[in-house]
Structure formats: C-alpha cells, structure tokens
Amino acid sequence: MDLSIIIPAYNEEKRIIPTLQKIRTYLSQQTYTHEVIVVDDGSLDETYRVVEVFKRSYPNLVLLKNQMNEGKGSAVKKGILSARGDLIFFTDADLSTPIEELEKFLKEIKNVDIVIGSRSIKGANVRAHEPFYRERLGKFFNFNLRHFLLPQLPDFIDTQCGAKMYRREAALKIFPLQKIEGFAFDVEILYIAKKMGYKILEMPVTWDYSADTRVRTFKDGLAMALDVLRISSLHKNLEHGN
Predict the structure, then answer these.
(1) How many structural domains are present in the chain?
(2) Domain holding 222: CATH number?
C-alpha cells in the first residue's frame, strides 16, 4: 500500500460523504495504491451508518469506530496505527485543505519524515478566512506556544492545520507514545518527533474555513492550553533518537 488517508469524524453525517466522494474521484486518477480510513469518534448522529453504506461502493474505504467520543487525537491515533500505507496522511472531515494539495505533500515528504500544512506562512492561500476573533486567538495560541507554553519546540507557525503527512516508519514510532486525546495532540506529536530527531517541514497550503467546525473556540482553546502544559512532563524521559 502506497498511501493511507486518515479522516477523524465526529457527528459528520452531512459532510463526510461529499468529502469521501471528492477523495475517491481524485485518487481514482492517480497511479499509486491507497486506502482511506474513517474513524468515527463515537458520533451521536448517523455518521457511521452513512459511511458504512458508502463503503459498499468503495472497496478502498476502511471504517473504524470508537464506542464513545474520545477526542480527535484518539481518533487520529487509532487510524494511523491501523494504516497499511508507506505514507500516512491525515485530513479533516470538512476537507478544509483540498485533496488536490496532497501532491505537494507527496513531493516534499521525499526529503523529510513529516510534512505539516500551514495556513500562516508565506505562500499559504487562505481562500475563506475564519471569523476575526478565531483567527486572532489561533495566532495568539501559536505565539504563546512557541515562546511560553512549550518553547522546546522550534518555530512552527501553525501547529493546528488539519493536514499532515508522515512516513510510516516515523508514525509507527511516534504515535504509540501519544497520550493526549484532544485537539492538542498535534503539538504533542510534533514535540515527540523533534525529541526523537525526525525531520519536519512546515509547508504552505490552500485552506478554506468551514463555519461548521467542531472546535469550540474558548472551551477547547482552554483545554488545549492546559494539555500543552502537560506535554513536557508526559515525555520527560524521552531522549533524542529514542
């Protein structure tokens, strides 16, 4: 298997099928082998059922389920650890980063271990912006992350963009160490990866804001900040290269 695509999904019955249709159409035009893994994170709506029906016409689709809502980090981890691809890409269910951006990731991953999409560095194409307060709070979070919350990380400008690619050998060493189940898992994974000596590239992407986001600005923002404060203590015994 050349490529695995991981999609965490929570209460996504309205958006997940259009997303899967776009991915299937795009990948049908490519020459590499692939699988798409949807992880239903204990949805309360019909997400699991609609994906299960869609799966009948898409043999490359794998459907996994958490019995209860554990958090985005937990869903991504479950998908990645079940992936068979040499390269593993995860994207959000709203496909805010268009699937066509995948080719950029495939090009850049040749020289590094991890490629993370960015909405904030030079070259990024944000076609639909978040509301002003969300955008400012996001930048505030990343500034404080780099300078105060977790200064051990290098100068990543956007840790939370929902588009990242990993080489299989890196992912299968990093993700078993992940402990945070919520939205701050992105930061934890980058922290572990740097401690282990993996090469990471932050790359500008095209991105569109979805008003139907699952991130609650203030409640989830506070939870993320508190989780970030735990990261260095969670991995204090992790040594470079191990």
Answers:
(1) 1
(2) 3.90.550.10
Q: Who contacts 208 (Cβ-Cβ below 8 Å, separation ≥6)?
A: 96, 98, 126, 127, 128
Instruction: Name the residue with tokens 């840790």.
Output: 159
Q: Give the 3-state secondary structure of 171-205.
A: HHHHHHHCCCCCCCHHHHHHHHHHHCCCCEEEEEC
Residue 106 lies in a domain: yes
pLDDT category of residue 217 using cuts at 50, 70 and 90:
low
Tell me which amino acid residue 42 is: G
Report the percentage of the chain scoring pLDDT > 90.
69
Query: Is residue 239 included in any domain, yes or no?
Result: no
Rounded Cα distance between 103 and 108, Å, is 9
pLDDT of residue 236: 83
Burial class from Cβ neighbours inside 10 Å (0-12, 13-18, 19+) for residue 169 reads exposed
What average pLDDT does the structure give for the chain?
A: 89
Q: Who contacts 10 (Cβ-Cβ below 8 Å, separation ≥6)?
A: 40, 41, 42, 43, 47, 69, 72, 75, 214
Confidence class of residue 142 from pLDDT cuts 50, 70 and 90?
Answer: low
**Residue 11 near residue 44, CB atoms below 8 Å:** yes
Using alpha carbons only, what angle is made at residue 10 by residues 48 and 4, rounded to the nearest 5 degrees? 75
Looking at residue 227, its pLDDT comes to: 85
